[in-house]
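During the no-cost extension, the postdoctoral fellow (Dr. R.K.) reprocessed legacy sequence entries with the updated structure-token encoder. One reprocessed record is reproduced below for audit purposes.
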Amino acid sequence: MTTMPDWLDAIRWDANGLVPVIAQEAATGDVMMFAWMNREALQKTAELGRAVYFSRSRNKLWFKGEESGHVQTVHDIRLDCDNDVVLLKITQLGHEPGIACHTGRHSCFYQSLQNGGWQAVDPVLKDPDTIYK
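Re-encoded structure tokens follow.
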């Protein structure tokens, strides 16, 4: 009897054992954030139904919302055609509307190139100083 290969083995991990991940709000299609996952983070995300990333700056697992309360419930995990980018379809919890960005904004992609410079085009929904301890 042959066993199915581990689904994590299908992913093309980079030289550091990481894969880029895009979090997209399921209800709106908004791209909320970009992050990285290692095998353990992706496995835990699949098991828990909650986004778990790998923080490169802290060199450890990062349970999204562990400090802010802005948890991401994961509805679907998708892999791109080259098997080297993961897409999470999520619901952003913790504030209405959901806050994914550490700046207190809905999405991390709040800057728009306008007139040769980057302009913040989305409002701060909650002061980050009141979110993080």
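The helical segments are 39-48, 128-131. The mean pLDDT is 92. The remaining legacy entries will be reprocessed before the final report is submitted.
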